[in-house]
Specification:
This protein is mainly alpha-helical. The chain has five helices and four strands. It has helices spanning 2-9, 15-25, 50-68, 103-113, 125-139; strands at residues 78-79, 96-97, 118-120, 150-152.
Length: 170
Amino acid sequence: MEATHVGATFAYADDATFARALTALGEEPSLPKGLGNILTKSGDLAPGYEESADGARKWLNKGLEVRDSAPKERGESLAIPTWFYGSEPSTPFASAYAKYFQNSIREEALIAQSRAGIIYAQGGGGTLREIFQDVELNFYASTADDFIPMIFFDPDDFWRRDAEFDASGG
């Protein structure tokens, strides 16, 4: 979800500046797993999550550093993060943010407004739900203009592999 916002932020940058930004982002490429339980109900850091909190801080700080290195002229992008799952913070690269109070409504709006198409990358349950919503809208499309193109970004054959489960079913 972050790639589109990074692209918009550097839309007017030259290739060398954009390449430097991508290289810098690669220094902290992803958030730690398990951030959903990082805070207690009172908002304190949960015991044992110090390393995850530090990883999240490093990821965010790197994003902010790279964003601040972008040229003053930037493209615009709208982020509509879930705000529901603690493990999915918003991108620091969007130029505007929106909020839906129910994630299902958010996902429906994202799909319905993506008239030019959607690129799906490896994701979790939300990504799969969005794919099924998109397929349903396409199934009932009454004209070609109502059809939403679906592109599956698949550099590691994620979308071509069968699901794998361990002995516990997980």
